[in-house]
Amino acid sequence: xxxxxxxxxxxxxxxxxxxxxxxxxxxxxxxxxxxxxxxxxxxxxxxxxxxxxxxxxxxxxxxxxxxxxxxxxxxxxxxxxxxxxxxxxxxxxxxxxxxxxxxxxxxxxxxxxxxxxxxxxxxxxx
Amino acid sequence: xxxxxxxxxxxxxxxxxxxxxxxxxxxxxxxxxxxxxxxxxxxxxxxxxxxxxxxxxxxxxxxxxxxxxxxxxxxxxxxxxxxxxxxxxxxxxxxxxxxxxxxxxxxxxxxxxxxxxxxxxxxxxxxxxxxxxxxxxxxxxxxxxxxxxxxxxxxxxxxxxxxxxxxxxxxxxxxxxxxxxxxxxxxxxxxxxxxxxxxxxxxxxxxxxxxxxxxxxxxxxxxxxxxxxxxxxxxxxxxxxxxxxxxxxxxxxxxxxxxxxxxxxxxxxxxxxxxxxxxxxxxxxxxxxxxxxxxxxxxxxxxxxxxxxxxxxxxxxxxxxxxxxxxxxxxxxxxxxxxxxxxxxxxxxxxxxxxxxxxxxxxxxxxxxxxxxxxxxxxxxxxxxxxxxxxxxxxxxxxxxxxxxxxxxxxxxxxxxxxxxxxxxxxxxxxxxxxxxxxxxxxxxxxxxxxxxxxxxxxxxxxxxxxxxxxxxxxxxxxxxxxxxxxxxxxxxxxxxxxxxxxxxxxxxxxxxxxxxxxxxxxxxxxxxxxxxxxxxxxxxxxxxxxxxxxxxxxxxxxxxxxxxxxxxxxxxxxxxxxxxxxxxxxxxxxxxxx
Lengths: 126, 595
Hints:
The complex is a heterodimer. Chain A has helices at 2-58, 61-70, 72-75. By secondary structure, chain A is mainly alpha-helical. Chain B has helices spanning 9-18, 22-72, 121-131, 137-145, 159-168, 190-193, 213-217, 219-223, 238-254, 316-325, 362-368, 371-381, 383-392, 419-426, 435-446, 471-487, 561-575; strands spanning 94-95, 101-114, 150-154, 173-182, 195-201, 206-212, 232-233, 259-266, 272-278, 309-310, 334-336, 341-343, 346-348, 359-361, 432-433, 501-510, 516-529, 536-543. In chain B, the strands form 6 sheets. In chain B, strands 1, 2, 3, 4 and 7 form a 5-stranded mixed β-sheet that branches. Chain B has a 5-stranded antiparallel β-sheet with strand order 9-8-18-17-16, with helices on both faces. A two-stranded antiparallel ribbon of chain B has the order 5-6. The termini of chain B are far apart. Chain A binds chain B through residues 31, 34-35, 38, 41-42, 45-46, 49-50, 52-53, 55-57, 59-62, 65, 79-85, and chain B through 79-80, 82-83, 87-88, 100-101, 104-107, 182, 184-186, 188, 238-239, 242-243, 495-498, 570-571, 573-575, 579-580.
């Protein structure tokens, strides 16, 4: 009986020892990985800051104004003016689609399917 | 354990048979028993002593081990503890109200020289001077060879410059990591931001400190490591600020003014949406403080906050509003406006010696900007109440706005307040204030009489100030300001759909030695829009403007500051999301008639 206990105990000790050894190195590995990641995070953070600064620099109002002036023939942008405000009633209803017919403007339940039979139905009231 | 009897019968009988004393057997056994008992007791005590010793030994061994460990191991921070979201302990960014970056940090390098590692100082000096035009080759070489072991060459380097310095290839040239402050929008909002510089400098790092504007005023907040990740949000709007600066600059150059300032303030919160001053500078490359000449002419001078000027007739509305608040007058009451007015040895005149009198309604006094009419209103109010009211509006104290320049710009006023002072103060002479003071005072009138505290920071909840004058008086004064634009001195200030109201002010500049200049004026226009529901206050101040397009040279605010302000409103109101209003038609045109 006693020798068996000794043998089992000894084997257990070896097992625990090797487990602790592996755990120790796994922990050190993980710590190294964490510090690598932190270095990477710091680097990414820095380049993020640089890119944010660069974005702000490229979008500075002076430059945008120059670009708008240079590309006036394509963009045709003017400074905002009080006359550019519109009313909701000025917005045209969508044009009737050749396949779907006039867009639904009733918004009532049970009538939401477009009428396919009348492609030239009159437009909704503005 | 079997107990051995003291007198075992077999041995007793045997002893009796042999004639021995059986008592001796008993004594023998008794002694034996006692011996066994003693042995057991001794073992027990030994065991206890051993346990006690073991406990003490292990306790002391533990302490000794811990001490040995502490003494023998290297100190190291626990590596797992620093995993957190904010490792960057740099200066906080500054954003505008929409999150656009106004100031941020950029990592860069400082260049320094370890002279004992230099291989070829003349060559290094020559190449460095070629790279950086501001360096002088001879001076650099002298500094490298005069026996010092260390010298700074440059505080910041761009990546390209760093590479070029690397390519010189001398081991004595070394780089130290730096964080530098970057203002990506260049000159934009320069006077608000101020600028930053380096404080204590070490080889590996240097602290960045604010030197002016909000950077200095909020320095502690911006450097607080606990709030490093949280940017400081200003109340400025980048787009509006750009537009205001553009229009103001154009105005300054068109009217050949020395400088100017514009403040656009939200009425309900006191937040400053745009604040411009010209001439301006680039905070990335802040010029040195002026050492000669008038400091007011330096581009660093923030006319909007530091410029303490006589603001002229813009003060007239305060007298009218107070008189209505006290119930002395109503907008249609007639007051004496017979010019010129003789008061003691002083004569009070109107602009260009006109006479609007003999009687003028309060509303017309404001619309026509009558000095004499305002003087009579002020005399009705009296010196004490007038001073109390101006003080309540914040016109006697430096503006509380969060800029480092604000507390030092103390409004000027005389210590004594005789009756002639009451008269002149009512139309803004003999008393000075900054455009920021004026903006806050006008915002208070526009806010239904509730005090407005100007701020450059974007806040979650507005500051609710005390009621300085009644809402009715404040509303009536708004109507008067509207009349100044529709039929008074500020007719060029009309912007279709935005119901601009305001008051012009033209003040002669004060000479250094006393007295006033003949042909140098400060023109101010204080505008509120839209009058029916005041949302914004705009102050435009121009320093020495001249309008020369007509036959006659004009220097009044109505011809200079007002058109600039109107253009600012026309351009910025749509950006602020204000939809133009359709003004109601005059009701008295057709009256229903019964017959």
